[in-house]
């Protein structure tokens, strides 16, 4: 078995077609078909069942897929370790972020500091839901990611960076604007603007409504918290957000916030990486910079709250 054959095999298995798999590994469809044929000849069994629209793993393919992914992760780890020989300023770090708000407000400063320590490093950033990013980590396509906690996969290691209570937010003209709390039933009856499915916070919100035996009236599902907040500011519905992130808008009179009765929902942001995987110097430095950045943010928030008498 060759690495290029295993890469082609995994790409086709995940993309479901030879055409998409070839595009993912940047070779022609003819070349990727030859690699799979050679791999099947060596094994002596077919790996895929071809159908008009997609390919399906055979029993042999299902047996090979996880082993192939593990081999490729070990291959990438070996290359990363060998790259250290070239010097500490080199390295590769593939970062994911499930929080658009964090990616906009804090990540640029973190990356700027990382770049000063690793000027020749190859750093990439992509976004997605927590579930998608965890899948990429497990498949060896991503090194580290900012995700909503908790993550239930035993093969993923996480570290809490930031936590906050979740509150409901509404326009100041709302009839209940002066209230401090809102019940599950009342909240479910509002025109709700929530985050898209796939994130942990959305899952916890759905679980909360389910436990309260009420069906929420969801009118919008948006991928960015900033978009949810703007919709609420324009009186398009009631949203849900982290408490600390709403303080400035509440103070400015753009929105009001309510505690949600009976809800024990926290928005926890953490770093996730493969458990037991290779932890490179650049990944270690990145993690340390993130810890410092979030600790400084917490100190600033504490000082601001004290000044405002909260």
What does this structure look like?
The chain is α/β, with parallel strands linked by helices. The chain folds into 2 domains: 3-84, Orthogonal Bundle (Arc Repressor Mutant, subunit A), CATH 1.10.10; 91-310, 3-Layer(aba) Sandwich (D-Maltodextrin-Binding Protein, domain 2). It has helices at 3-15, 18-24, 29-43, 59-83, 100-105, 107-117, 130-138, 184-188, 200-211, 225-233, 243-251, 281-307; strands at residues 48-50, 55-57, 92-97, 122-127, 144-149, 156-170, 181-182, 192-195, 218-222, 238-242, 256-260, 266-274. Strands 3, 4, 5, 6, 7, 8, 9, 10, 11 and 12 form a 10-stranded mixed sheet that branches. It has a two-stranded antiparallel sheet with strand order 1-2. The chain starts with a helix and ends with a helix.
CATH architecture of the largest domain: 3-Layer(aba) Sandwich
The dominant shape is globular
Count of individual domains: 2
Mean of pLDDT: 90
What's the SSE pattern?
Answer: HHHEEHEHHEHEEEHEHEHEHEEH
| SS summary, helix count | 12
CATH class of the largest domain: Alpha Beta
Intertermini distance: 63 Å
Tell how many strands the DSSP assignment holds. Answer: 12
Secondary structure layout plus pairing:
Layout: H1 3-15, H2 18-24, H3 29-43, E1 48-50, E2 55-57, H4 59-83, E3 92-97, H5 100-105, H6 107-117, E4 122-127, H7 130-138, E5 144-149, E6 156-170, E7 181-182, H8 184-188, E8 192-195, H9 200-211, E9 218-222, H10 225-233, E10 238-242, H11 243-251, E11 256-260, E12 266-274, H12 281-307
Parallel strand pairs: 3-4, 3-5, 7-11, 8-9, 8-10
Antiparallel strand pairs: 1-2, 5-12, 6-10, 6-11, 6-12
Helix pairs in contact: 1-2, 1-3, 1-4, 2-3, 6-12
């Amino acid at each position: 078995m060759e690495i290029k054959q295993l890469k082609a095999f995994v790409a086709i298995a995940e993309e479901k077609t030879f055409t998409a798999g070839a595009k993912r590994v940047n070779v022609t469809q003819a070349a990727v078909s030859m690699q799979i044929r050679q791999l099947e000849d060596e094994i002596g069994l077919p790996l895929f069942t071809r159908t008009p629209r997609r390919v399906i793993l055979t029993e042999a393919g299902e047996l090979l897929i996880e082993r192939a992914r593990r081999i490729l992760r070990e291959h990438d780890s070996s290359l990363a370790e060998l790259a250290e020989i070239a010097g500490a300023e080199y390295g590769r770090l593939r970062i994911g972020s499930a929080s658009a708000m964090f990616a906009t407000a804090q990540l640029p400063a973190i990356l700027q500091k990382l770049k000063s320590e690793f000027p020749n490093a190859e750093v990439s950033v992509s976004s997605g839901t927590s579930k998608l990013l965890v899948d990429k980590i497990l498949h060896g396509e991503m090194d580290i990611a900012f995700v909503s906690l908790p993550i239930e996969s035993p093969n993923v290691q996480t570290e809490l960076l930031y936590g906050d209570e979740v509150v409901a937010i509404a326009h100041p003209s709302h009839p209940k604007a002066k209230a401090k709390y809102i019940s599950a039933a009342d909240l479910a009856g509002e025109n709700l603007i929530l985050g898209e499915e796939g994130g942990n916070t959305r899952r916890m919100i759905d679980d909360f409504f389910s436990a309260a035996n009420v069906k929420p009236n969801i009118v919008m599902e948006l991928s960015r918290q900033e978009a949810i907040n703007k919709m609420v500011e324009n009186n398009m519905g009631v949203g849900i957000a982290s408490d600390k992130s709403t303080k400035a808008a509440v103070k400015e009179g753009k929105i009001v916030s309510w505690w949600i009765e009976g809800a024990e929902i926290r928005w926890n942001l953490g770093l996730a990486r493969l458990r037991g995987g290779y932890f490179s110097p650049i990944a270690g430095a990145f993690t340390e910079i993130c810890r410092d950045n979030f600790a400084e943010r917490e100190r600033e928030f504490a000082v601001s709250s004290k000044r405002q008498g909260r």
